[in-house]
Structure formats: C-alpha cells, structure tokens
Amino acid sequence: MRAAKRLALVLAFLTLVAAVGLYFFNQFWIHRFDEIIVRQARIYRLDPLLVWSVVYEETYFRPWKKGEAGEIGLMQVTPTVGREWAEETGMRDLARAMERDPASVLADPERNIQVGCWYLEKISKDYRGTPGAEAHVLAAYNAGPTRAVEWNRVPADRAPLTPEQFIARIDYPTTRAYVTSILARYRKAREERDARGGGKR
Fold it and tell me: How far is CA 64 from CA 71, 145, 183, in A?
C-alpha cells in the first residue's frame, strides 16, 4: 500500500513538472518572434498584437510552413505579394531574388513579417474610419481585397455595416472562422496588455 502511494505521488509530481515545462515551452514558442513583430508592426503603423494574432492563426509561429496555394512562412505570404512589395518599395535586389527563389526570401522570419505587415497596412488604407476595420482587413488578408469589398457593399443611402454584420456576410466559412478566431485572440491579448498597464507592445 505504501509503495502504491509513493508511486502515485511520484506520478503526480512528474505530471506537474511536465505541465509546468509544457507551459513555459509554449510561452517561449508563441513569443519567440515578438521582437521582430513589434519592430515591423511599428514601421507599418499596426498594433503588434494584431500582427501577433495573425501569425498565431496562420502558422502557430512555424516559419517553415507552406500553404496549399503557395503561401510561405510565418504570415503565409504569397510570392505574388512578395514581388509586389519588392517592386513598390524599390528594392531591386530583393525583387530579383523574389523572381528567382521566393521561397528562400519569404522563409526568413524577419522578411516574412515585414512583407506581411506591409500588405496588412496596404489593405488597411481602404478601411480607415470604418467601424471594426480589423474585421475587414483580416477578411481581405485571407480571402483577397476584392471579396472583402463585396462583403462590405451597401446601398449609398444605408449606414455602414457593423463589424458583426460584416462578419455575418462572409460567405466563405473558413474566412469567417479565420476572422472570428483572430479577433477573439486579439481582444484577449489587448485585455491582458491593458491589465498589465501597458500600451502597444
């Protein structure tokens, strides 16, 4: 009986150690790119927590991940967007590298987050002053700007859609789930930041 109790205590202790270890490893994993995210988000006038929430949803911080439609890296940037970024920012060497081997360029975490933030800012320009702009930006990031415009269209004599109405109009279930999931994570992250008394990370 005593041996059984000792075994139970040892197992309980090992379970606790494993749980604590898993928690701290997970914290390291989901925050190991924070410095890059903060730096690039500030350059492109984005809330780092929104960018962090996008990376969480897109790849769970796995820079090697590739999507079914050719998306690459942490923010699942497509080569097309990468080439647009290189051309519009006038970076000729990177434009040539994007033509030759976009996967190598976009696999780099810093570059990937830089291009992803650039694209988010580019999309967000169309929704400044729009109620719940984040929902529109995320829908455009996931399904394309044209689709987001269609979902947001209302007659000229009607009030703009609320964020909830806009999300309800998204007729791609995966995009609707994507937007809803990121917004929930973003709200939670902001609440935690506010509870710590911090501003933008």
Answer: 11, 26, 25
pLDDT in tens, 95-116: 889 889 999 999 999 999 999 9
What CATH number is attached to the domain comprising 144? Answer: 1.10.530.10
Asked, for residue 98, whether it belongs to a domain, the answer is yes
How far apart are the two ends of the chain, measured CA to CA in Å?
54
Residue ranges making up the domain that contains 42: 36-195
Judge whether 87 and 77 are in contact, CB under 8 Å.
no
Give the three-class secondary structure for 77: strand
Helix (H) / strand (E) containing 89: none
Contact 99, 83 (CB under 8 A): yes
User: Global pTM?
Assistant: 0.87
Residue 28 inside a domain? The answer is: no
pLDDT digits (tens, 9 = 90+) for 15-48: 766 666 777 767 879 999 999 999 999 999 999 9
For the chain, what is the domain count?
1
Distance CA 128, CA 170 (A): 20
